[in-house]
Design brief:
Chain lengths: ~110, ~120
């Protein structure tokens, strides 16, 4: 079974920039894996942020951006705000089925 | 406003069955793929299954081994998840989600399924 890997935790200072990555055990992540990114805060349902690698939803703050970086999917937060402290999940497509990464706990400190 | 409301969760004994429902409103349900995602207590998200607009394609996480069935009724704007042979490790909050632009763009609040004797 395909394994999707994310950094377990990252810490960033307010106003800083941080990049979260998402790797696949099958090899390089490509646009064909159609990476999606989600944010989840405690006690809440997840919220979609990015779809198809780079596309933002209408509600996605401009400081969030998606890309492919060194064979991985990446989510970059520029100008981090305290309210960005949350768990972030990537989701990759594998020929019909999909798989989430284990999540990255982002701490803003 | 898009709304997804799950129901049908509860306490069930190991080996039992449960059928989850998801009522959709605020968008043209029949135009979009739909997805089920679950989250065990204190754990991460797990993609469970999805279904094409007309039900002609369905995909499942391999670990389920045929125990769950996703279905939909476009006339009722409803998504379902039939869960059989339930195990303790199926204990989770089950979310339904609508694939409007990407995957799982819109989420319900989830319904808790507890498998325990």
């Amino acid at each position: 079974q395909t394994v999707v890997t994310q950094e377990p935790s990252l810490t960033v200072s307010p106003g800083g920039t941080v990049t979260l990555t998402c790797a696949s055990s099958t090899g390089a992540v490509t646009s064909g894996n159609s990476p999606n990114w989600f944010q989840q805060k405690p006690g809440q349902a997840p919220r979609a942020l990015i779809y198809s690698t780079t596309n933002k939803h209408s509600w996605t703050p401009a400081r969030f951006s998606g890309s492919l970086l060194g064979g991985k999917a990446a989510l970059t937060l520029s100008g981090v705000q305290p309210e960005d402290e949350a768990e972030y999940y990537c989701l990759l497509h594998f020929g019909g089925a999909w798989g989430f990464g284990g999540g990255t706990k982002l701490t803003v400190l | 406003e898009v709304q997804l409301v799950e129901s049908g969760g509860g306490l069930v004994q190991p080996g039992g069955s449960l059928r989850l429902s998801c009522a959709a409103s605020g968008f043209t349900f029949s135009n979009y793929w739909m997805t089920w995602v679950r989250q065990a207590p204190g754990k991460g998200l797990e993609w469970v299954a999805n279904i094409r607009q007309d039900g002609s394609e369905r995909y499942y996480v391999a670990s389920l081994k045929g125990r769950f069935t996703i279905s939909r009724d476009n006339a009722r704007n409803s998504l379902y998840l039939q869960m059989n042979s339930l195990r303790a490790e199926d204990t989770a909050v089950y979310f339904c989600a609508g694939d409007v632009q990407g995957v799982a763009d819109y989420w319900g609040q989830g319904t808790l399924v507890t498998v325990s004797s």
